[in-house]
Write a structure and sequence with these properties.
By secondary structure, the protein is of the alpha/beta class. The protein has 6 helices and 10 strands, in the order E-E-H-E-H-H-H-E-E-H-E-H-E-E-E-E. The chain has an 8-stranded mixed β-sheet with strand order 5-4-3-6-1-7-10-9, sandwiched between helices. It has a two-stranded antiparallel ribbon with strand order 2-8.
Length: about 190
């Protein structure tokens, strides 16, 4: 049985993005890219909300083709092209995209079925609104939070809409030279 893993950057005060969705405060470098590449190589299923998917779809399919493409662009572009993408949206047309499944209003039932049919992990990249919806339905099994050493003061929270208390077990931590700390937690049932 598969599990849904939330994979997201956050500020030290708990925000996934600024008040207008800005993410220019996120620290990334080759060390973090290498860590993420090793991590995502273990799965072939990505889960997105519509907004994040459209942002990814506008860049990753052709990122490796650019003359100045970085190592990260080449590796992630190849992974993205081959990954099965699952998008929560009531407006996207599934036939317009390759290797993509669009799930509409009955997302909780569809994702529970996807978890049953998947061997391994389903990585939920960013997508705070989708994360909120999945957390409210107890669909997230694990979270990898990349905590950036910055305080935003306000913005889009990582955790919202949780209806009850959840206990989490810390599985691993990783500190990057940039000051970003990755925390891997498992939701306890």
């Amino acid at each position: 049985m598969g599990k849904i893993v939330l994979f997201m950057h956050q500020s030290l005060d708990g925000f996934a993005a600024g008040t207008k969705g800005e993410m220019n405060w996120i620290r990334v470098d080759q060390e973090i890219f290498d860590f993420v590449e090793q991590r995502i190589a273990q799965t072939n299923t990505a889960l997105y909300g519509r907004v994040t998917f459209e942002m990814m779809e506008s860049y990753w399919p052709t990122a490796a083709d650019k003359p100045d493409a970085s190592k990260h662009d080449k590796v992630h572009s190849a992974w993205y092209k081959n990954a099965h993408k699952v998008v929560l949206s009531t407006t996207l047309n599934q036939t317009a995209f390759t290797n993509t499944t669009v799930i509409g209003t009955d997302y909780a039932v569809a994702l529970r079925k996807l978890k049953e049919e998947t061997h391994g992990e389903i990585l939920l990249f960013g997508s705070p609104t989708t994360a909120h919806a999945l957390l409210a339905e107890n669909l997230v099994d694990e979270c990898w939070l990349f905590v950036n050493p910055v305080l935003l003061g306000d913005g889009i929270p990582v955790f919202k809409g949780i209806k009850e208390r959840h206990s989490l077990k810390l599985l691993k931590t990783h500190v990057f030279s940039s000051g970003v700390v990755c925390l891997q937690h498992q939701f306890q049932q």
